Amino acid sequence: MSLRLVHVDRYVTPLREGGSMPAVVEADDLGMYVLKFRGAGQGPKALIAEIIAGELARAAGLPVPEIVLAQLDPELARTDPDPEIQDLIRASAGLNMAMDYLPGAANFDAARPSPVDAELASRIVWFDAFVSNVDRSTRNPNLMLWHRRLWLIDHGAALYIHHGWDGSADGAGRPFERIADHVLLRWASVIGAVDAQMAARLTPAVIDGVLAKVPDDWLAADATLADAAAWRRAYANYLGERLRQRAGFVAEAERAHAQL
User: Fold this and answer.
1) Where are the domains of the chain?
2) What is the pLDDT of residues 172-191, one digit of tens each?
3) Rounded to two decimals, what is the model's pTM?
4) SS3 string of the chain?
């Protein structure tokens, strides 16, 4: 199933705490979304990571707000007085990625959090080690509390291998040492116990289905491989190999938890 397409009707406000300056926007379905701009510094690679990691997390049973494709009219730049925002909107004309806005949600407070369920924490830590997400730390949790439930947001820094990538699966079995900085690691006491369940949800068919949601133009923007189809095969091979060799990142996460 493909991602829904919405058209941005109104730029509401920037979220300046994000490095790529995302924004809250209103779309033609009257929904509010957090828009990630294709024209921001990291370009389409960050949006590719958002879709792949976000939709794989959803397939693994983790709570992720709905991800949509968002069509952006450059004329919206005229409604904002900030030249930087005007330039960002114009540079992102066309297709972008957005995530459902959670009204009233609170940032997960890493300094004074309530205890997190061990199984949920372990599943999130396992997943972030799988997709090499460097951005779920105590400094920047990228977790929201909404209706008394944790929600995973902002996966643009995941799959960092694809920046300057030749498309090979070399290194897919490497442990993920940065998991030691994970904001939920202290509660993740059953990582080994959730391993088989998490991996079983991410079948080749599920991975292929998620990759099919990424727009061709974003993939083909990197001319290292021949076309979007070649990039999808590369991502599928890498993710499949990472699952097959997951003992390395699972053991590293368990070791990091034991050292706390």
Assistant:
1) 5-100, 106-258
2) 999 999 999 999 999 999 99
3) 0.96
4) CCCCEEEEEEEEEECCCCCCCCEEEEECCCCEEEEECCCCCCCHHHHHHHHHHHHHHHHCCCCCCCEEEEEECHHHHHHCCCHHHHHHHHHCCEEEEEEECCCCCEECCCCCCCCCCHHHHHHHHHHHHHCCCCCCECCCCCEEEECCEEEECCCCCCCHHHCCCCCCCCCCCCCCHHHHHECCHHHCCCHHHHHHHHHHHCCHHHHHHHHCCCCHHHHHCCCCCCCHHHHHHHHHHHHHHHHHCCHHHHHHHHHHHHCC
